[in-house]
């Protein structure tokens, strides 16, 4: 097997990991594909369902659309029935990233009519913002919301009158939930439609400094709110490389977007045309259940590691893969991370935001470098006929006509670099194992001199308790902070970003500092070494329970 560059073979470790995933998934993948084939062989819903079912499904359609969707004007000519696109929308106007999605269904319906098709909003899914709920009880529902979104997606598609589907969503749990739900209807061609990042505001580094000053009491609430509002100031995703933007990178690597769609700002002249292109693309695409195979999943894992993306995906993509009958685990991530080069630095792994990442080359540059160096599978299906090579290109529009050009060389090698000259020869995530169990750590933003931390530990049962100890000046020393009882069976496994400012301050004072927790920190984890999602082995779980409150 060769990469897209015939001079460079696929890396043997990528092939080995892919092969073992395929081998361990034989029975579950075969059963999944059999289900996809069985669903695909059925007649279209408008011909298969009872007349009352069909009437209910299309009762609210405009008359001209209804005629095409049901073939009432040519009941004997099934071929004249128009394909019907199901739209699953995560729109609300609380989330900046999802507010632009309000008008997408109208754009899609207009384009569908031009193509002789119809489109319906099949349903909506809940979408919560971790930025709003950080440090509040609402955060305890965050991880669980993914499965609610997956169920809502499946409920939306369960009306079973659709020939293909468009998934409208962007952020943390929303995209994994949409993807899991869509894979349960794997016979449907499916394209994901993002809204893009907000334009650059207050730089992330400056925002972080103000947060640290507020933690120290050097600035008040007014100044802090002013800084936060300057950073999060308009429609679009947050501009740091957290879970939301990692989602978009992975979808590009999996070939589930219109190529180059991920990081085009809302309101950009090309944005609506890319949404129209999604409607055009889905009508020609292969079923999503056939696209998302073990090679596609490995491509996503490699892209995550090469960009230092969110640790949350070590939870999410295990579930995504399983929805397609594919079994992956943390060992697969770890073995890939050993050989995949880190070729991107975006905050918190660097100073650039995602808009600067896009300007420097963006996903197109990263995917091309990984393909040409033999780290990604080129022989995969995508939503486009040209395969994953199409996702190495950048879209432009002239007079409303889309075209794509090569990403070219890096425009800023402090942000993206070639695979032959990476920031690091290994990926941004590592698997940790010890006498407490297993965890993961995001090392892409941790300084080299902080890769080994030896210090007394201090055990806390909540993040509030750590904050209280910090405020009482009890942590002004080398310390490993253990924050336990943050797992899914305890309080929903919240993200613990409120811990970042105090720990960063301690590290800035020259202390050796680290965090160990069964909670999460996602892609926004910074320069403090942090072992996340610690999973005690059964025979060692008692040690977790017996940890002393101070050592």
Give your account of this protein's structure.
With 551 residues, this protein is α/β, with parallel strands linked by helices. The chain has 22 helices and twelve strands. Strands 7-8-12-11-10-9 form a six-stranded mixed β-sheet. The protein has a four-stranded parallel β-sheet with strand order 2-1-3-4, with helices on both faces. A hairpin with a 2-residue loop joins strand 7 and strand 8. Helix 6 (104-114) packs across helix 13, helix 10 (204-215) runs antiparallel to helix 11 and helix 12 packs across helix 15 (294-307). The chain is globular, with a radius of gyration of 24 Å. Residues 74-79 have low confidence and may be disordered.
Short description:
This protein is an alpha/beta fold and 551 residues long.
Keywords:
551 residues, Rossmann fold, 4 domains, 6-stranded mixed sheet, 4-stranded parallel sheet, globular
Classify the beta-strand content into a percent band: 5-15%
Coarse shape: globular
CATH topology of the largest domain: Rossmann fold
Number of domains: 4
CATH level 1 class label of the largest domain = Alpha Beta
In CATH, what is the homologous superfamily of the largest domain? Response regulator
Main sheet record: 6 strands, mixed
| Mean pLDDT rating | 91
Strand order of the largest sheet: 7-8-12-11-10-9
- The count of DSSP E runs of length 2 or more, i.e. the number of strands, is 12
What Rg do the Cα atoms give? 24 Å
Structural class: alpha/beta
- Poorly predicted residue ranges: 74-79
Named CATH architecture of the largest domain:
3-Layer(aba) Sandwich
Count of discrete alpha- or pi-helical segments spanning 4 or more residues:
22
How much helix is in the residues? 25-40%
Taking the alpha carbons of the first and last residues, their distance comes to: 53 Å
């Amino acid at each position: 097997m060769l990469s897209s560059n015939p001079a460079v073979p696929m890396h043997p470790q990528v092939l080995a990991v892919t092969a073992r995933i395929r081998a361990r998934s034989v029975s579950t993948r075969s059963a999944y594909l059999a289900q996809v084939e069985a669903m695909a062989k059925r007649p279209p819903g408008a011909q298969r369902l009872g007349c009352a079912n069909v009437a209910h499904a299309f009762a609210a359609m405009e008359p001209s659309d209804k005629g095409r969707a049901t073939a009432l004007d040519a009941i004997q000519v099934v071929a004249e029935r128009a394909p019907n696109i199901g739209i699953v929308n995560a729109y609300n106007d609380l989330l900046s990233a999802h507010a632009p999605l309000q008008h997408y269904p109208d754009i899609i319906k207009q384009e569908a009519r031009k193509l002789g098709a119809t489109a319906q909003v099949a349903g909506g899914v809940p979408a919560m913002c971790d930025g709003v709920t950080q440090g509040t009880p609402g955060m305890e529902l965050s991880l669980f919301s993914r499965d609610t979104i997956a169920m809502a997606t499946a409920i939306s598609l369960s009306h079973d009158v659709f020939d293909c589907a468009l998934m409208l969503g962007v952020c943390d749990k929303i995209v994994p939930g949409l993807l899991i739900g869509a894979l349960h209807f794997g016979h449907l061609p499916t394209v994901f439609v993002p809204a893009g990042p907000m334009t650059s505001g207050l730089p992330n580094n400056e925002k972080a400094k103000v947060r640290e000053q507020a933690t120290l009491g050097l600035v008040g609430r007014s100044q802090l709110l002013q800084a936060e509002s300057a950073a999060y100031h308009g429609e679009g995703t947050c501009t740091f490389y957290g879970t939301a933007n990692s989602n978009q990178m992975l979808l590009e690597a999996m070939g589930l977007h219109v190529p180059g769609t991920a990081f085009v700002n809302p309101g950009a002249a090309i944005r609506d045309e890319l949404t129209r292109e999604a409607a055009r693309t889905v009508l020609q695409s292969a079923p999503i259940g056939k696209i998302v195979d073990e090679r596609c999943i490995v491509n996503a894992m490699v892209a995550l590691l090469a960009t230092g993306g969110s640790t949350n995906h070590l939870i999410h993509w295990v579930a995504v893969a399983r929805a397609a009958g594919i079994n992956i685990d943390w060992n697969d991530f770890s073995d890939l991370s050993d050989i995949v080069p880190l070729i991107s630095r975006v905050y918190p792994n660097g100073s650039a935001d995602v808009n600067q990442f896009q300007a420097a080359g963006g996903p197109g540059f990263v995917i091309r470098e990984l393909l040409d160096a033999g780290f990604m599978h080129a022989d995969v299906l995508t939503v486009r006929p040209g395969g994953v090579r199409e996702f190495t290109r950048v879209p432009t529009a002239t007079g409303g006509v889309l075209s794509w050009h090569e990403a070219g060389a890096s425009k800023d090698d402090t942000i993206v670099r070639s695979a032959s000259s990476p920031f690091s020869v290994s990926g941004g995530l590592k698997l940790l194992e010890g006498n407490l169990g297993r965890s993961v750590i995001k090392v892409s933003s941790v300084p080299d001199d902080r890769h080994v931390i030896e210090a007394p530990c201090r055990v806390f049962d909540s993040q509030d308790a750590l904050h209280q100890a910090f405020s009482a000046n009890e942590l002004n020393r080398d310390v490993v902070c253990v924050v336990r009882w943050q797992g899914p069976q305890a309080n929903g496994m919240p993200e613990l970003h409120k811990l970042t400012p105090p720990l960063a301050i301690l590290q800035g004072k020259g202390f050796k500092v680290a965090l160990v927790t069964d909670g999460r920190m996602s892609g926004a984890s910074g320069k403090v070494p942090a072992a996340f999602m610690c999973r005690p082995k059964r025979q060692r779980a008692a040690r977790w329970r017996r940890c002393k409150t101070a050592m």
